[in-house]
């Protein structure tokens, strides 16, 4: 017998619903003028796929710009997300963080508005109010902050967008009046799922959502019916009749299954049928020897994910390295796991209820949206490279929102609607304010990393990132303290050792730095950056043979490493092996055409060797890639001045000054040019200009004195 409700949350007209959802989605607008923070640097700023690589390389590399077949690749294949980043760069000609943030906010608004259509499909047209309240909760949920305010969260946003489109198209493939429209809609659904996968891997889970929607909502086959049919030992005729009655359903399910299998096989073939290799710090539970303890810790992480959906008070940009201590033995946290499964198990058992009312349908669809998109992050099918990541909850949170509103609707029989509506409005308001404040913390790395100290003070990665941020800002004392704190919390943190070694190297503490680099290499043998930094220290200590070996070892682990080639060239320069130095710098510029220091060193070395024509040729090549680099214009001007081409030299000096008017040497050298050109008044003006920019510049003072002494006898 169906449970009939006498009350429900008030209806909201569709135009007003869309307006409210769009307004609520702006709760993350506080990050619109944010910077590139945390993973944004690696995925966008330092990822050549976003800027310079051939377009087809985007389809060969992972999300971070590493070849998918490389052993260090994360195997995260999201070429369409990378292409969306690249489109920004192509349109603007540079990386402007604000553009990326604004597009993320717009995408969240679109996803939220499409969410309303998806809920209307999953629940039916009679439950528009339930769809609206669930969507409004989805629009403001604070756990979405990372997906919206972090630019790399674009992967979740695009994935959700095409997942919702695929569900809408699947609906049309069922109910379209013409057969042609049905097949077009089904093809569009499959294409949308594939597109979603190319934005982020979890897009494939849309297949599961469509299947369960078709079975439960369209064909009204509930779990109880399916279990009864299987256990009742149906006769051949009954099975035949079932197949005949559900023929369209079975055809659609077969198409979904075959398409998803094709997509999965294609996806694995792209990465060479190899899973990514992670370190224990990435996901410590996966490296526990005991299967029981592994499963127990996984389940505790599920509890935390669920808690973030229920009460998103503590949010952190990273949950690794001690943020969530492992359960090794008897621990009170096991009670949370038991409570989680008690509640979740009861909800699961409820789905087998023979009393098949509308709340059962909504609950099943809510569980479907919650569980199926979360499965790729659950460590069930393969180990993931994180402990807990808030952005992975962006799509599953839709299921939680639907379950929450379903429960609220059911309470309307027992609690006055006015009270429930008031509580709901209060929750939406709290979530909006939390999202607004949290998105503000994502604007800069300083505020983001500092906010994590209150949530995960024992997380070594938090201290590492604070240290890195402090070093970039020139606060080396704080940076050293935080790196040391990170190593205290995690003594095997190779990246922290490497960065602390760099700080000590810059302070002239070369032996201490050498010890740290060697320790980092012991922990991570293929740590190319540590090998390169060790080479720099050894070169400074005049241990050239060891230094060269370190550089070559770094290059053996990372063949595309322009900075290492640059430093190898510096080593050869110190050894006066000029040909090798030029070859090394040429390799650096070949791998990174905008490597300014390598271009500059080649120009200066060729000039010193007296091969000025070659120097000018290299300089003109450099200008093709760095047309706005003042130092290259300056070096060309110096060479032209030396060979007596004063007219062209003057042009290049003026170009250099126009591009960097605060460099006193540019004015001084232009003054020297005028001095040699017998344009004494112009020379005097340039020397004086140099002294205005830098009053203590002795070369300008000396040249001005010589100029005055030269002009005195003439007078």
| Class from secondary-structure proportions | mainly alpha
Please state the oligomeric state of the protein chains shown. single chain
Based on Cα principal axes, name the global outline.
elongated
How many β-strand stretches? 0
The termini sit apart by 116 Å
Mean pLDDT: 90
Share of helical residues: 55-70%
Number of helices: 33
* Beta-strand proportion: under 5%
Describe the main β-sheet briefly: none
Task: Indicate the topology.
Blueprint: H1 14-25, H2 39-45, H3 79-92, H4 97-123, H5 128-140, H6 145-149, H7 154-175, H8 179-199, H9 206-218, H10 223-231, H11 236-245, H12 247-270, H13 291-310, H14 333-350, H15 358-371, H16 396-411, H17 417-441, H18 445-455, H19 460-472, H20 476-489, H21 494-506, H22 510-523, H23 528-540, H24 544-557, H25 562-574, H26 578-591, H27 596-608, H28 612-625, H29 630-642, H30 646-659, H31 664-676, H32 680-693, H33 698-714
Written description of the protein model:
By secondary structure, the protein is an all-alpha fold. It contains 33 helices and no strands. It has helices at residues 14-25, 39-45, 79-92, 97-123, 128-140, 145-149, 154-175, 179-199, 206-218, 223-231, 236-245, 247-270, 291-310, 333-350, 358-371, 396-411, 417-441, 445-455, 460-472, 476-489, 494-506, 510-523, 528-540, 544-557, 562-574, 578-591, 596-608, 612-625, 630-642, 646-659, 664-676, 680-693, 698-714. α18 packs antiparallel against α19 (460-472) and α26 packs antiparallel against α27 (596-608). The radius of gyration is 32 Å and the shape is elongated.
């Amino acid at each position: 017998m169906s449970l009939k409700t006498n009350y429900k949350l008030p209806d909201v007209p569709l135009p007003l619903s869309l307006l409210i959802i769009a307004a609520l989605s702006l709760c993350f607008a506080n990050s619109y003028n944010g910077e590139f923070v945390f993973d944004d640097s690696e995925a966008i700023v330092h990822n050549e796929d976003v800027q310079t690589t051939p377009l087809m390389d985007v389809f060969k590399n992972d999300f971070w710009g590493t070849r998918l077949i490389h052993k260090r690749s994360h195997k995260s294949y999201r070429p369409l997300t990378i292409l969306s980043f690249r489109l920004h760069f192509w349109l603007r000609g540079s990386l402007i963080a604000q553009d990326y943030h604004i597009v993320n906010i717009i995408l969240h608004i679109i996803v939220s508005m499409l969410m309303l259509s998806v809920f209307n499909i999953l629940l039916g047209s009679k439950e528009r109010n339930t769809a609206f309240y669930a969507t409004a909760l989805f629009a403001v949920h604070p756990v979405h902050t990372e997906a919206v305010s972090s630019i790399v969260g674009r992967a979740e946003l695009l994935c959700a967008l095409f997942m919702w489109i695929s569900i809408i198209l699947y609906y049309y493939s069922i109910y379209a009046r013409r057969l042609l429209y049905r097949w077009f809609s089904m093809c569009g659904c499959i294409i949308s799922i594939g597109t979603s996968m190319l934005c982020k891997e979890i897009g494939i889970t849309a297949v599961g959502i469509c299947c369960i929607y078709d079975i439960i909502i369209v064909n009204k086959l509930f779990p109880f019916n399916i279990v009864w049919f299987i256990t009742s030992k149906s006769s051949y005729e009954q099975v035949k009749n079932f197949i005949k009655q559900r023929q369209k359903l079975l055809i659609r399910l077969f198409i979904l299954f075959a398409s998803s299998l094709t997509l999965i096989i294609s996806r694995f073939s792209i990465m060479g049928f190899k899973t990514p290799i992670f370190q224990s710090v990435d996901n410590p539970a996966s490296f526990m020897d005991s299967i029981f303890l592994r499963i127990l810790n996984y389940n505790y992480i599920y509890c935390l994910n669920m808690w973030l959906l229920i009460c998103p008070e503590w949010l952190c940009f990273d949950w690794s390295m001690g943020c969530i201590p492992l359960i090794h033995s008897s621990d009170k946290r096991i009670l949370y796991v038991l409570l989680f499964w008690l509640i979740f198990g009861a909800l699961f058992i409820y789905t087998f209820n023979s009393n098949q009312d509308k709340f059962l349908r909504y609950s099943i669809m809510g569980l479907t949206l919650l569980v199926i998109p979360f499965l790729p992050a659950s460590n069930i099918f393969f180990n993931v490279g994180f402990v807990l990541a808030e952005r992975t909850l962006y799509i599953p949170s839709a299921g939680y929102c639907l379950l929450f509103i379903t429960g609220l609707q059911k309470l309307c029989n027992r609690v006055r609607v006015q009270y429930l509506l008031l509580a709901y409005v209060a929750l939406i308001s709290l979530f909006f304010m939390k999202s607004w404040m949290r998105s503000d913390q994502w604007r800069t790395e300083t505020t983001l990393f500092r906010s994590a100290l209150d949530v995960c003070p024992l997380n070594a990665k938090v201290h590492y990132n604070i240290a890195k941020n402090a070093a970039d800002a020139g606060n080396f004392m704080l940076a050293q303290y935080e790196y040391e704190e990170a190593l205290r919390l995690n003594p095997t943190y190779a990246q922290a050792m490497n960065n602390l070694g760099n700080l000590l190297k810059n302070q002239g503490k070369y032996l201490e730095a050498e010890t740290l680099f060697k320790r980092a290499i012991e922990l991570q043998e293929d740590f190319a950056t540590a090998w390169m930094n060790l080479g720099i220290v050894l070169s400074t200590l005049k241990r050239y043979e060891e230094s060269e070996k370190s550089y070559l070892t770094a290059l053996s682990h990372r063949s595309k490493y322009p900075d290492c080639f640059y430093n190898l060239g510096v080593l050869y320069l110190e050894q006066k092996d000029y040909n090798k130095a030029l070859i090394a710098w040429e390799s650096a510029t070949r791998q990174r055409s905008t490597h300014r220091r390598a271009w500059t060193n080649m120009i200066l070395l060729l000039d010193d060797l007296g091969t000025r024509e070659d120097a000018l040729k290299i300089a003109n090549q450099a200008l093709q890639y760095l047309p706005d680099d003042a130092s290259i214009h300056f070096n060309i001007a110096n060479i032209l001045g030396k060979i007596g081409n004063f007219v062209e030299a003057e042009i290049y000096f003026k170009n250099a000054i126009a591009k960097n008017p605060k460099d006193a040497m540019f004015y001084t050298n232009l003054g020297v040019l005028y001095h040699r050109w017998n344009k004494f008044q112009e020379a005097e003006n340039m020397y004086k200009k140099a002294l205005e920019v830098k009053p203590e510049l002795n070369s300008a003072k000396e040249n001005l004195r010589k100029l005055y002494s030269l002009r005195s006898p003439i007078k």
